[in-house]
Amino acid sequence: MTVQSVTDRIPGGPNGPKGFRARQYFVCLKGILLREGLRFLNQRERFVSSLVRPLLWLFVFAAGFRQVLGVSIIPPYKTYVMYEVYITPGLCGMILLFSGMQSSLSMVYDREMGNMRTLLVSPFPRWFLLSSKLLAGVTVSIMQVYAFLAVAWFWGVKPPWTGYLLMLPALFLSGMMLCSLGMLLSSVIKQLENFAGIMNFVIFPMYFASSALYPLWRIQESSPLLYKICLANPFTYAVELIRFALYGQVDWKSLMVVVAVTILFLGGAILAYDPSKGLLSRKQDIGGNA
Amino acid sequence: MLRRLTVLIAGPALAASMSVPACAYMVYVSNERDNTVSVVDSTTMEVVHTINVGQRPRGITISHDGKLIYLCASDDDTIQIIDTASYQIVGTLPSGPDPELFVLSPDGKTLYVANEDDNLVTVIDLESRSVRTEIPVGVEPEGMGISPDGKALVNTSETTNMAHFIDTGTHEITSNVLVDTRPRFAEFKSDNSEVWVSAEIGGTVSVIDSASHEIKHKITFEIPGLRAESIQPVGVRITADGMKAYVALGPANRVAVVNAKTYEVEKYVLVGQRVWQLAFTPDQKMVISTNGVSNDITFIDVAKDEAMQSVTVGALPWGVVVHPN
Q1: Domain count, chain B
Q2: Chain A residue with minimal CA distance to B12?
Q3: Chain A residue closest in CA terms to B270
Q4: In a domain, B1, yes or no
């Protein structure tokens, strides 16, 4: 089948009506979501490993650093909390962060295997395809977060049950931000092997230089420079957005930062994946694995 | 669909907001270091007023009609009377030197005061505002508990390590019960069957049979990660149904929830630093702890046995009492 014959048959083609119907967008979205969901379900070890990582932090790290006399009151907490309660929103953020990066890894894989090219030649707009891919990644990571919270409940981390529901938009937004960062990064990674670099240069610094593990006031006490780095780290705001939402509150500053950074990363990712303008085409020109 | 979603989200939120106690009570907290009493609204959980009082305010209680607060101004060697309507000091009582803790008789007519420096329990008639008598007890008397029928008074003496049972009719000591080191507080069960005495250094609560004056049981506490010396029981409160007791554990920063039937510790609730005294709200839906070092009080949900909120009050909060209505 020639390219000409394909474009003749699709809406918006040379002689067809302009644009797609909502139903057609939905079919495309459903296809991408199903593919990502099936991949997640078929890779049980991926599900287990995504749970083991935060649980290890909760059971081992939090136990070691346990402040037996409680963490001082900071919003949104209304009273003293144990360290494992404090660290939980940060671990939810960690799941989203790793998951976002993992979906970036899967995009590099897709590109190497040629699946990405198949997806990008689809007649749907690129922004829609990439956003759908992003949505699929975020949905999977939110499922991981809830599985983690279910186990954490038995460990004594019991936020108000309404918090589980109210945190959903915060998880979604934070997940979108981190997945779009992953997508942006995947557009500049040439090969799968380079993913280790992402671990060292993106995931760990983002995770450690944030409010995930320690309250910001404590970081400020020990290092004003690190405190400034934490403030410049968008992951800090994702964690705080989740933390406040888990206790039924909105941290407006974090919300604005997360929304703005998501738009920035997502815009960058869409541009970077544009074969005519983005980095992808440049790599194709020089003969890279695109 | 949208409407269903709204109900799904707003319903639980509404239910959660409705679980907040409906009754507003005024909570009065004596702040030992800055010589004030903080007035806290139990619904908004905010300090609504601060009353300047005498030096080193510690023991605090309230008349049964809720009109007058009695407050030990320890370094002024007096008991101050505060009007709860105007928040003004309207009088004093002759307490004897260094009053620390006291207990009001069930008929509201007599105040029994422990004078720490004088080894005495002073009996004050509230109508005439005069000392009726003084009862010599052990060294450094502190804890004061009275039986629901008002016939038996228990005073604990910190250095003698005893709980002294006193007949309120004759003002004579009827028996002395040796308990663990530095007994701080005495609390009767509402059915008059037992009196619980906490021992700060001993780290125990002795459950004494009210009739035989024998120790039935000793409650011990264990918190993983904390040394035994850090667990120092002080304030004790038992629910009116006699099912549950709350014990403030001092520098352990926790309030122990004890099954008052089996004497098993069921839970430790994390509160502020150096938790000292406790008080129930009249509906017994909340128990409030004073946390001396962190300068706050913590509201604990009695149904869930969870800390709800901590509220900053004055410096070194010591005693707490809640308006009866």
Answers
A1: 1
A2: A162
A3: A80
A4: no
